[in-house]
Amino acid sequence: MRGAGKSTGRPSLTGFAEIKDVIAVCKWVCENLSSDRILLVGFFSRISLALAYALFNLSINWDLKICFLSLDLNYFSGSCILFFYETAGYLEILVCPNNGKGLGAPIAGSAVDGIKEVIGYVSIGYPFGMFASILFGRHHKGILKSPKPKLFVMGTRDGFTSVKQLRKKLSSAAGRVETHLIEGTSHFQMEGAEFDNQMVTLILTFHLIFIGI
């Protein structure tokens, strides 16, 4: 991915270059791993390695096989986590992108309708607030107009987006929209290891109930 590991590219300020990267990775996965069902999961800020392990451990109870396709957590040069798991003979891909500038959720959201194999989207801490919209507002239209199932997870004390702002934005969203508010939790608290299991459970539950396997 752009700016990660030995990549010669650099993370962009707006995140639009990274959208093309996510689409390219998903297309490669579909062509080379014979997958036709993708769930995009975007994190606004950095994702913890502990969450990756939590996803792996909880998957055992869900009868899912988790494998790491790519992993780079260098926050300042860009990062991307790709997971894939196999159920009922086909692959489901979870893509968690972050370009090092806190754009993971908007990037994933903007890529949703660029890949026909994407079956849904999960956002952890999407920046819908007034000041955040100055930088990320151009990404809002893409995910809000998408008819594909969407889940938005946010703390009630997010700091970037208020609950009122979140609900106002999502009131105009197309398709099925689900929200999960974590009471009294700030934006960066959700990065903590104490929330890893909860995040993984929310992602898998959304997939199983609203998308299906």
Automatic annotation (TrEMBL):
InterPro entries to which the protein is assigned, alphabetical: AB_hydrolase_fold
Q: Which Gene3D superfamilies match?
A: alpha/beta hydrolase
Keywords in alphabetical order = Membrane, Transmembrane, Transmembrane helix
Residues crossing the lipid bilayer are: 38-56, 68-85, 118-137
Q: Does the keyword Membrane apply?
A: yes
Could you tell me which PANTHER family the record lists for this protein?
A: AB HYDROLASE-1 DOMAIN-CONTAINING PROTEIN, ALPHA/BETA-HYDROLASES SUPERFAMILY PROTEIN
Provide the protein name: Uncharacterized protein
